[in-house]
Amino acid sequence: MSQTSADAVLTATPKPTTKPARPEFSSGPCPKRPGWSAEAVVAKAFLGRSHRAAKPKAQLKDAIDRTAKFLGVPADFKVGIVPASDTGAFEMAMWSMLGARPVDMLVWESFGQGWATDATKQLKLDDCQVLTAGYGALPDVSKVRKDADICFTWNGTTSGARLPNADWIPADREGLTFCDATSAAFAQDLDWAKLDVVTFSWQKAMGGEAAHGVLILSPRAVERLESYTPARPLPKIFRLTKGGKLIEGIFKGETINTPSMLCVADCVDALEWMENLGTVQDTIARANANAAALQAWVDATPWVENLVADPAARSNTSVCLKIVDPEITALDEAAQRDFTKKMVKLLEADDAAYDIGGYRDAPPGLRIWCGTTVETADIKALTPWLDWAFAAAKADL
């Protein structure tokens, strides 16, 4: 672009004067709750105490009970805290339960692909069907088998595509459903009647600290654990049964390994904030409002589109955007990635937005977290900065 053209672009899109009050829009770890402070969390934390002592153990159980109540988990389900974030929770479930039936893996982004790789190359399951779709789309769920166990992400964190509902899961299914809900829980409606194993992590929609996962089991999942012993060794941190019976302590605050009581206190802090908002429908409404504000700007902006073409399948948390300006799409993929990286660096340098680059395996673009802990006013303040960063990066071509 000539210097004259570049100057014209920047003149038409001047740098905004108002910044988001909180420029954190990372899709993981995600923004803390509004008003968060380290002091408030430390005041709740049992630091320097054994997690097996009465009060710390009670706090773990309190986090479990409040999570179950707020999410509306059925009373006969089990909720536990496990090691290694959502990854640990989902791996634990896969390694402990898969193999009893045929398995269908649904893949439309990187985390689902990871679970499919484990199923086929690590667990080496005999009858494993992998149903795939590209970034921004969903696989053909009509091909899911009624007698199979089904593994899927509810919300594709790295693609911005989510399942609109669970209507495609047969009510009289014979297999179990394994749902990675890590960027959906607290922000999207989960159909508990259709779910048997649900996992998520505190650092997503709760804005909590990382390293711990939540594992939720239906009675059907518990029955599988107590009736099926896979022909594979299980590490200690994956073991959910002992002597053929569920280890109930995991679901009462007796964690498998030592938890961070600071992280537990942060989880409780996030739960208290959400409880003050009202119900899970209120936290969902916050994410919906954020995503709607961002999409309204997308709809009015010619250089960008949502990566997900189907509005019903668009995430309200990990919103992924693609640049459709002809001058940029004419570049090769590496150059397109360099362009978006330049935009991201410009925004970070001005403290207008942090960590909004698209996922490394996704198509070149941006990814903006719109979950519950984000304020809609900050989304609205961000969009002029996106226009400015695009213009500035384009002027530098």
Write the SSE topology:
Layout: H1 3-12, H2 38-44, H3 54-71, E1 78-83, H4 85-97, E2 103-107, H5 110-122, E3 128-132, E4 149-153, E5 177-180, E6 197-201, E7 212-217, H6 219-227, E8 241-242, E9 245-246, H7 261-277, H8 280-299, E10 304-306, E11 318-323, H9 326-329, H10 333-349, E12 366-369, H11 376-395
Parallel strand pairs: 2-3, 2-4, 4-5, 5-6
Antiparallel strand pairs: 1-7, 6-7, 8-9, 10-11, 11-12
Task: Offer a quick outline of the entry.
With 397 residues, this protein is of the alpha/beta class. It has helices at 3-12, 38-44, 54-71, 85-97, 110-122, 219-227, 261-277, 280-299, 326-329, 333-349, 376-395, and strands at residues 78-83, 103-107, 128-132, 149-153, 177-180, 197-201, 212-217, 241-242, 245-246, 304-306, 318-323, 366-369.
How would you portray this structure in words?
The chain is an alpha/beta fold. It folds into two domains: 3-33 and 279-395, Aspartate Aminotransferase, domain 1; 38-275, Type I PLP-dependent aspartate aminotransferase-like (Major domain) (Aspartate Aminotransferase, domain 2, 3-Layer(aba) Sandwich), CATH 3.40.640.10. It has helices at residues 3-12, 38-44, 54-71, 85-97, 110-122, 219-227, 261-277, 280-299, 326-329, 333-349, 376-395; strands at 78-83, 103-107, 128-132, 149-153, 177-180, 197-201, 212-217, 241-242, 245-246, 304-306, 318-323, 366-369. Strands 1-7-6-5-4-2-3 form a seven-stranded mixed sheet, with helices on both faces. Helix 5 links the parallel strand 2 (103-107) and strand 3. The longest helix has 20 residues, at 280-299. The N and C termini lie close together (6 Å).
